[in-house]
Structures
1.
Amino acid sequence: MTTAHPASLPAVSPPRAHTAHPAGRAWAWTGLAGAVVGVPGLMVTGNTYDASTGVVADNDELLAAVADSAGLVWAQQAVCGVVAACFLVFAVGLRRSLARQEPANSLVPGLAAAGVVVTAAAVLVGGGICTELYWALTGDQPFDADTVGAHLALYNTIPWLWAALGVSAAAVALGGLRHGSVGRPTAVFSLVMALLLAATQVFPVQYVAVVPGGLWVAVTALTAALGARQDGTRAR
């Protein structure tokens, strides 16, 4: 029996240690950007006519009132596109962040992300009417006043339906209060916002959902972003 000389054995490299990198928080800043752009953006671009004048009672008068609002319509299309993209990134990051803290097979991360995704879809679909309305106001051929009135009804409704964020807020509140997946202040704040968002669906004021919804995204995203920065500072 021959024995291999130690010098003839292939050198075995020691296993490399894996360095744990802290999770990035670009998703949180992106969500904050979506809220900051979306809430004031919709409020500004939705100001196409003065409802107190009563023009909504007559589509011909309504068409005349919004005839010079093509720029706002175009701006809302851009706002909706930005918000939808930002919210999709925020949804993915929020799910990943919660999944790290929640028990295995918890529904909280998925529900939290789903509410944000549904809202992004509503905003994107709501922005879709902007193209039709823009060309109705600027095209060579005049559009029927009743058609423009119908476009405006969608323009002033669909992009504002942020109520699905109530599901996200409720999920975050549940995860935070039961499992500590977020801080208690964030959990309590999320619970309050979830109740306010639910209230906007009980009463015929669905448009108002953009306010508590946007506030929830902004505060939750900012808390996550700043919390990560503080964790990184302590680690160093």
2.
Amino acid sequence: MLFTGQAEVTVDAKQRLAIPAKFRALLDAERDGSAWFCVPWPHESVLRIYTEQRFQLMAERREETLTPDQDEADLETTLFGYTERLEMDANFRVKLPSWHLDLIQLPREVVVVGARNRLEIRSREAWTANREARFNDLRSLVARREARKPQE
């Protein structure tokens, strides 16, 4: 599934976020599951949400071992320990964990951004303020990414 575009929404007083129609139209309960996995991310204070199936698929791709080194063990504990499964209600809303909202200081006015295999929930004010700078940085982001690819 490919998520693209953006939509402005409001987190309601009960900390619920309605998945915007443009994104939920892409969902298939049999293929994607009926829930989302929410991962708070420190860079730019964002919540990353993945469909149930996509998150499980990506998590299963990680190498499993009974004896991870300390960095791997710490990464798994933090990443999976901070991740919460969110059930979607009949109105396509998810209740965001209050501790996630506190951790990244997410305001009620947000933008939901399609980011390929996930949705990102960001401060609407910060997203709007950085829109032009983010666009202008696109070429250098691509160049840095290309520079990291192994040479063939």
